[in-house]
């Protein structure tokens, strides 16, 4: 892996950052990204995209997190990955709309992939259709008209189902911090089944759809953390106490420095996973480890940033508070950190068993 910063991605990050500077919510973020054709960055050429690779998705998701904007990029990108692997004519048509930025997609239910059987989402085949079950949560920044991408376990593995908003509108109810969608009894047509993650625990993910989604989710968390720390450093440099900025105090400066190093390590882990994905090399192990690391790092960094701001950081009008509000849902979006680390451990052990023959 070449660790030299790619000039393309540095320029891309600056462009995305400038476009998102004036965005205040999900709708404005989507409009800003459409203005630079960001939805097409990772999309295959056949869908009207540029096929620039997952590394571009890392850049876009990082900048969304850095500005504390909802992650409006990961959902459509995961749906595009699934459709690219399915190869059907219906999927190709839907992929074109996604690459153009015409369709918003929310990910839901992926936090239950590693949950116990009684809590996971199961579907029963009904001819070519699937009879869905389970309840999934949505964030409070749900985009009106957005499709819902959910995983459903069947006897043949995990299927990915893309549901238009009008199919779940009457099944949605308010909940603390967002909404809940009741899927039980809903029948997904064959055309709404856009891909699969394979059969097994952890999911084999033969086409890398889940692995790519994990890298993007990790990049968003990295961006949330980086933006929160930038705000903390700025605040610590301007806040005076006992005649000097509080950043001159070791109790403030040392945690910030230590976490800056952790952020650098997280960035490298994400870029390594993306590099292997774009080189068509195995990357599933790297992806789950990078996401788990990003979740832990973001939790620590945002907490420290809030502490440095003091009581002021709990004010809704303070920019750092936006990072704090987005963090919980982002951390658990694709599974609890403990579940991710357990999967990473199982993958490492499985790799060792393959390399080391029995005595």
UniProtKB/TrEMBL annotation:
Any one Gene Ontology MF annotation carried by this entry is: acyl-CoA dehydrogenase activity
Which family does the record claim for this protein?
Answer: Belongs to the acyl-CoA dehydrogenase family.
Locate the Acyl-CoA dehydrogenase/oxidase C-terminal domain: which residues? 210-329
List this protein's GO terms for biological process: fatty acid beta-oxidation using acyl-CoA dehydrogenase
Name the chain's protein: Acyl-CoA dehydrogenase domain protein
Which PANTHER family does this chain map to? MEDIUM-CHAIN SPECIFIC ACYL-COA DEHYDROGENASE, MITOCHONDRIAL, MEDIUM-CHAIN SPECIFIC ACYL-COA DEHYDROGENASE, MITOCHONDRIAL-RELATED
The enzyme class is oxidoreductase
**Source species:** Saccharothrix espanaensis (strain ATCC 51144 / DSM 44229 / JCM 9112 / NBRC 15066 / NRRL 15764)
Instruction: Supply the EC number(s).
Output: 1.3.99.-
Pfam families reported for this sequence = Acyl-CoA_dh_1
Name the domain of life.
Bacteria
Q: Name one GO cellular component term.
A: cytoplasm
Q: Which InterPro entries match?
A: Acyl-CoA_dehydrogenase (IPR050741), AcylCo_DH-like_C (IPR036250), AcylCo_DH/oxidase_C (IPR009075), AcylCoA_DH/oxidase_NM_dom_sf (IPR009100)
């Amino acid at each position: 892996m070449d660790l030299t910063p790619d000039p393309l991605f540095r320029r891309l990050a600056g462009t995305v950052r400038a476009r998102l500077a004036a965005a205040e919510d999900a709708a404005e973020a989507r409009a800003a990204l459409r203005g630079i054709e960001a939805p097409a960055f990772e999309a295959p050429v056949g869908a009207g995209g540029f096929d620039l690779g997952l590394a571009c998705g890392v850049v876009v998701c990082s900048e969304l997190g850095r500005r504390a904007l909802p992650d409006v990029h990961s959902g459509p990108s995961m749906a595009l990955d699934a459709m690219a692997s399915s190869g059907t004519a219906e999927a190709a048509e839907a992929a074109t709309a996604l690459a153009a930025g015409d369709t918003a997609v929310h990910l839901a239910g992926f936090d239950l992939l590693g949950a116990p059987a009684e809590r996971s989402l199961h579907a029963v085949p009904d001819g070519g259709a699937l009879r869905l079950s389970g309840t999934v949560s949505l964030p409070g920044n749900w985009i009106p008209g957005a499709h819902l991408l959910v995983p459903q376990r069947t006897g043949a593995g995990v299927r990915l189902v893309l549901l238009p908003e009008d199919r779940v509108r009457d099944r949605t109810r308010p909940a603390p911090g967002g909404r809940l969608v009741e899927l039980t009894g809903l029948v997904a047509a064959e055309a709404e089944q856009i891909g699969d993650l394979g059969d097994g625990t952890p999911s084999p993910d033969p086409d890398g759809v889940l692995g790519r989604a994990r890298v993007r989710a990790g990049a968003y968390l990295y961006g949330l953390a980086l933006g929160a720390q930038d705000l903390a450093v700025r605040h610590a440099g301007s806040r005076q106490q006992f005649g000097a900025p509080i950043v001159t105090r070791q109790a403030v400066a040392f945690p910030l420095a230590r976490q800056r190093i952790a952020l650098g390590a997280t960035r490298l882990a994400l870029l390594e996973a993306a590099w292997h994905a774009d080189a068509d090399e195995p990357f599933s192990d790297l992806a789950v480890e990078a996401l788990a690391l990003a979740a832990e790092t973001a939790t620590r960094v945002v907490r420290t940033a809030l502490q440095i701001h003091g009581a002021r950081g709990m004010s809704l009008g303070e920019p750092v508070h936006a990072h704090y509000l987005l963090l919980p849902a982002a951390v658990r979006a694709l599974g609890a950190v403990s579940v991710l680390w357990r999967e990473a451990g199982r993958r490492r052990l499985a790799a060792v068993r393959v390399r080391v023959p029995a005595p």
